[in-house]
Amino acid sequence: MQIGLLGLGTVGTGVVELIEKNNNIIAKRINEHINIKKVLVKDLNKQRSPLVEGKITDRFEDIIEDEEISVIVEVMGGEEPALTYIREALNRGKHVVTANKEVISKHGKELLELSAKNDVNLLFEASVGGGIPIIRPMKRCLSANQITKIMGILNGTTNYILSQMTEHGKSFDEALKEAQLAGYAESDPTDDIKGFDAARKIAILSSIAFNTRITADQVYTEGIDSVSQADIQYAKEMGQVIKLIAMGKKHENSVEVAVTPILLPEDHPLASVGGPFNAIMVEGNAVGPVMFYGLGAGKMPTASAVVADIMEAIKNNNGGKLNCTCYYDFDIMDPGEACSSFYIRLRVVDKPGVLAKIAGAFGENEISMAKVFQKNTINGTAEIVIVTYDVPFRNIQDALSEIKAYKQVVEVSTVIRVEEEHK
Ligand code: NAP
Ligand code: HSE
From CA 169, how far away is CA 159, in angstroms rounded? Predict the structure, then answer.
């Protein structure tokens, strides 16, 4: 079985090495030997592994026009030219395996329709959980369930940064640099830090879970750039940890989908997921909660999913393909309507009546406070931390815009959602 590989970076190199390492057992499992025939790169002058000697090209035509190549593996990343290349491969009747969440989260509908029209596979297991199997388990093993909720840590870079800040008191920049060196981060780490990478992944996962198309731009997204060491320490004092959580929840006629930092109780199953590890909790109406855990990024874990997809594409050549499963068209819930408990940290002038004024704004907006404490007085200003009971996000936004206008309020430093005790 001849493969055309588009991209030879972190993931592409892993794919080449894994096929070399496990080819015998792979061949037994699918009754075919996999051979990477050609590899597309951008820069012909870069030093490459001897495993791809004589196979490198910088011309896509060399690959797409090769009739012997029946599977195209896209691990270049970015929207273009990856999207155009995937379209062309599907139109020419070639199976496509991709790890590209940007393309799938934006253009999944069109590409899945194209793959069905051309009766070929379009597989993208690595695009969500890296090495963690999640798409096939959802589409196959959990397909008898109605999925009610997905909650996960879907970005290794941010989880690594938050873990290093929590466990070792490291600075944000130091931890980011380490994550980049280890190959977890996207080429532009803004996508990781601002939550865009996780938003793409939860868009793909929620579309599959709730059978309705959700694109990344419909996901309410906050990153970890507003989380400081002070918040991590307050969370610790309250027996909680801060994680960047991607969440999809089915309501009666709508779907709530968001990526935000969340304070989790220390005994929550996702709280102990540390370093670059990812984890996804799925709740089905028959199976109950199921948890998937593993490495969501890195060379070999991601290659594990990509090569398994190549094998699946070859096995499914004559049927059994995983087609689009978006049968419904649910509304996306307005983020202002989504209810949660909130942690709010603000700095105010340390004078009588200031707390009462803040409490007044909360009361007017029907926000009930569960905890309030004041600490760290510096130069006549005090830090106030408030934890609310469950309330729609819009009420918090309205109260805070009033509070920000008070001259005694120096700043509203952080607003983070709080997950209730795990039941
Ligand atoms: P990477 O290390 O930046 O590698 C990209 C490769 O694609 C390089 O070999 C580059 O060529 C080639 N390339 C880029 N643009 C090209 C163009 N226009 N024409 C030809 N070749 C081009 O990226 P990566 O980390 O392997 O990620 C690849 C994909 O996998 C992305 O979609 C990413 O989101 C996804 N993914 C990555 C991970 C991970 O852990 N890294 C995990 C899950 C999913 P040169 O070598 O010549 O520069
Ligand atoms: N940059 C991603 C992460 C890896 O840190 O999880 C690719 O999905």
Answer: 14
Among 197, 259, 295, name the best residue to mutate to test ligand 2's pocket (greatest count of ligand atoms within 8 A of Cβ).
197
**Closest among 63, 54, 57, 66 to 8, alpha carbons compared:** 57
Q: Which atom of ligand 1 is nearest to the CA of 298?
A: 40
Which is the catalytic residue, given 201, 243, 249, 299? Answer: 201
**Which residues, at least 6 apart from 192, have a Cβ–Cβ distance to it below 8 Å?**
155, 157, 158, 179, 184, 185, 186
> pLDDT tens digits, residue range 268-325?
999 999 998 999 999 999 999 999 999 998 899 999 999 999 999 998 876 677 888 8
Q: What DSSP letter does each residue of 130-175 carry, written as one string?
A: TTS--HHIIIIITTTSPEEEEEEE--HHHHHHHHHHHHH---HHHH
Distance of CA 168 to the CA centre of its chain: 24
Residue 267 alpha carbon to ligand 1 centre in Å: 37
Tell me the residue range of the domain where 366 lies: 337-418
156 Cβ inside 6 Å of ligand 2:
yes
Q: From the alpha carbon of 99, which atom of ligand 2 is closest?
A: 8
- C-alpha 124 – ligand 2 centre gap (Å): 14
Does residue 150 sit in the same domain as residue 280?
Answer: yes
Atom 33, ligand 1: residue with shortest CA distance: 77
Task: Report the pocket of ligand 1 as residue ranges, CB < 6 Å.
Answer: 7-12, 40-43, 46, 75-77, 81, 99-101, 126, 130, 183-184, 187, 297-298, 302
Same domain, 142 and 66: no
Give pTM, 2 decimals. 0.94
Averaged pLDDT, groups of 10, the chain, 423 residues long: 96 97 96 96 96 97 98 97 98 97 95 95 95 95 96 96 94 88 81 96 97 96 93 95 98 95 96 95 97 93 97 83 86 96 96 93 96 86 95 98 95 93 47
278 and 309 in a common domain:
no
Residue 322 falls inside a structural domain: no
Ligand nearest to the CA of 197: 2
Number of structural domains in the chain = 3
Check whether residue 276 and residue 368 sit in a common domain: no
